[in-house]
Design goal:
Blueprint lengths: L1 E6 L3 H9 L7 E6 L5 H7 L4 E5 L7 H11 L4 E6 L7 H5 L5 E4 L4 H12 L8 H9 L13 H11 L4 H8 L3 H15 L4 H10 L5
Helix pairs in contact: 2-3, 7-9, 7-10, 8-9
Length: 208
């Protein structure tokens, strides 16, 4: 039996995700919407696989996964996202996670990914090959960060001290979208706070 914990801050999403495993004989799923409970859960009732939303307010699925693996080194971490999964391929190369899923994939794809992960293998799209090939190519610039236009704007506002809500109003998106973009920015800069991101942006001259 594969025991799975689904971690997401949206109760409706959690319920829908859990229902995917109904009547699946070799899997049992539970849910958790508060990331602060994760350390205690891992210590008392560890799971085989942790299916984690990348974009969790107040933290990120990346950080939650790191916390889990620090307490349970053999845990299998699969992240899922509504963003482009290509943005997170580096986490697989760095062996920080075991799999990536788009929120648009089918139930069959999710089940196959979990089963394959338990065997120590990875399900990846063909675009991952292109990513790996790019890693082996000479870099024209020493700066590997690839921030898109929206991320650069958000980083500029972070440096100026804007809140997520204020940034959302400025660029006409939802606060949730700002949170998702910040999670990727933090990962690219290898930081965990807004202050660190602002300092790194100035040091690397990422903003005008």
């Amino acid at each position: 039996m594969i025991n799975i914990l689904i971690i997401d801050d949206h109760p409706i999403v959690l319920e829908g995700s859990k229902n995917l495993f109904n009547n699946i004989d070799d899997m049992r799923a539970n849910t958790e919407n508060d990331p602060t409970n994760i350390p205690e859960i891992v210590r008392t009732t560890p799971y085989d696989v942790y299916l984690i939303d990348i974009n969790i307010p107040g933290t990120s699925g990346i950080d939650v996964g790191a916390t889990i693996r620090s307490l349970q080194p053999n845990a299998k971490i699969i992240l899922y996202t509504g963003d482009q999964i290509e943005d997170y391929y580096s986490l697989i190369v760095e062996k920080k996670i075991h799999g990536l899923l788009s929120k648009t994939v089918t139930k069959e794809h999710i089940l196959r990914t979990i089963r394959v992960t338990m065997y120590g293998e990875i399900v990846l799209p063909t675009s991952f090959v292109d990513y790996v090939q790019q890693l082996g190519q000479p870099q024209i610039s020493k700066q590997p960060l690839l921030l898109n236009t929206r991320e650069k704007k958000i980083l500029q506002f972070v440096v100026q001290g804007y809140t997520n809500s204020a940034i959302a109003l400025e660029i006409e998106v939802t606060p949730r979208t700002v949170e998702r973009n910040l999670s990727r920015i933090y990962h690219l800069l290898n930081v965990t706070t807004r202050t660190e991101a602002a300092l790194m942006a100035k040091e690397l001259k990422l903003i005008d």
